[in-house]
Amino acid sequence: MDSKVKFLAGALAFTAVTVVLLIVLYINGSLVPEKETEKVYGDSVAAAPAITVSGDALKDFLKDEDFFDPEPAAAKERNTETLPRLYLQGSSIVKDIRLSILDENGRPAAGYPYFAEIEGLGEYKDLDQDGIIYIPDLSEGEYLIDLKSVPGYVVPADPLRVSVRAELQYKVIDDISLYIKSEDEIDPLADDTALNEANEDTDETEVTGKWEGTDAAFGIDVSKWQKDIDWEAAAADGVEFAIIRCGYRGSSSGSLVEDPYFKKNIDGARAAGIQTGVYFFTQAITEVEAVEEASMTVSLLDGMKLDLPVFIDTEGSGGRADALDKETRTAVCKAFCETVRSAGYAPGIYASRSWFDKKLIDDEFDNVTRWLAEYRKTPLYTGDFGLWQYTSKGTINGIGTRVDLDMIWNND
């Protein structure tokens, strides 16, 4: 390399170093005049001090975890706000926790295997992906529960606190509506079954029409099986009261199911001036399930005032509750009755004569209204009863099917 080339190379190197040094000095503030500069704030002009940056401040970006993140924190927050949210709700009946993972409409968000973590106990999974996690066999106390993250959703940031009871209370469950299903969600053919043993305990004296020669009140009991009813026509035919099924527990699945005709029937009967009561077809196998059934009944009534009691209907179904011993079945029916009583309704129990005699401890129900099913002119049942279902073969104007006929016995 000749001397001219060496000189040019050195000059270029010196120039490059000088430019870099000037840039650094400018950034560090050495070349910024130390005087006040003007900055516009809204409609006014205010004096702001010159900003100087130390050499160490040039490394501040290393402290920002999101500096190299292609999605800034503000954008992340905006995106999070657009995601649907999930909510965690919990309750306890006795030594258990019922967790519901709810969507923004307040309904169980089915379709995902959710995980909930209970502090000190570990994780619990929604195995059937119905948005509900049931955790049994817990000790009394306070529990903190977190819902684990779910792709595509915002989950609660704070844990849910649930108090677990050590003893059963006959009180209405506040969130029972979350567990009520429609018939579209179950198999009605498998779940809505009944074996009316009163039909096997009848004789030729059974009266199948309106009972004559008595001043007892005349009524009917109905469910979806009677389909659409002309309640004005029924009232004109002498129907004074109606006991209307509000729901049932599935004899196969154990689901709580609303009778699809309940609201239409009770509204129609009341509008026609017919006195009303309701009944629930039980398939509970524990007192806890009986409290659920009573809570569902009260929830469906939604504060409605009734003229007649709220009855638990206990009879065979070919399903889950048939094998109960009489002690357990009696405890189940009493739990139902005490729960509806705690909600301000008069409780009652429906059963056939053979059911009262053989499947229940009958004298345990002296403080509730008995509704007897026995199809003969003179009942053989020897206990006290307030209502009598005397046939299942009745006909009434406004109803296109056979219907049960009842009377309020002895003017009770």
Structure in words:
This protein has two domains: about 80-165, Sandwich (Immunoglobulin-like); about 175-410, Glycosidases (TIM Barrel), CATH 3.20.20.80. It has eight helices and 19 strands. Helix 6 runs parallel beside helix 7 (about 325-340). The protein is elongated and about 120 Å long. Helix 7 (about 325-340) links the parallel strand 15 (about 310-315) and strand 16. The strands form four sheets. It has an eight-stranded mixed β-barrel. Strands 6-5-8-9 form a four-stranded antiparallel β-sheet, with no helix packed on it. Helices cover about 25% and strands about 25% of the residues. The chain starts with a helix and ends with a strand. The chain has about 400 residues and is an alpha/beta fold. The chain has helices at about 5-25, 75-80, 190, 230-235, 260-270, 285-300, 325-340, 355-360, and strands at about 35-40, 45-50, 85-90, 95-100, 115-120, 120-125, 130-135, 140-145, 160-165, 180, 215-220, 240-250, 255-260, 275-280, 310-315, 345-350, 370-375, 385-395, 405-410. The model is unreliable at about 35-55 (pLDDT under 50).
Summarize the structure.
With 412 residues, the chain is an alpha/beta fold. The chain is 23% helix and 25% strand.
Strand content: 15-25%
Strand order of the largest sheet: 11-12-14-15-16-17-18-19
Question: CATH superfamily assignment of the largest domain?
Answer: Glycosidases
Under the CATH scheme, the architecture of the largest domain is Alpha-Beta Barrel
- What structural category arises from helix and sheet content? alpha/beta
Q: Can you tell me the CATH class of the largest domain?
A: Alpha Beta
State the domain count.
Answer: 2
How far apart, in Å, are the first and last alpha carbons?
126 Å
**What is the H-and-E element order?**
HEEHEEEEEEEEHEHEEHEHEHEHEEE
Mean pLDDT: 86
Largest sheet, strands/sense/barrel = 8 strands, mixed, barrel
**Residue runs with pLDDT of under 50 for 5 or more positions:** 34-53
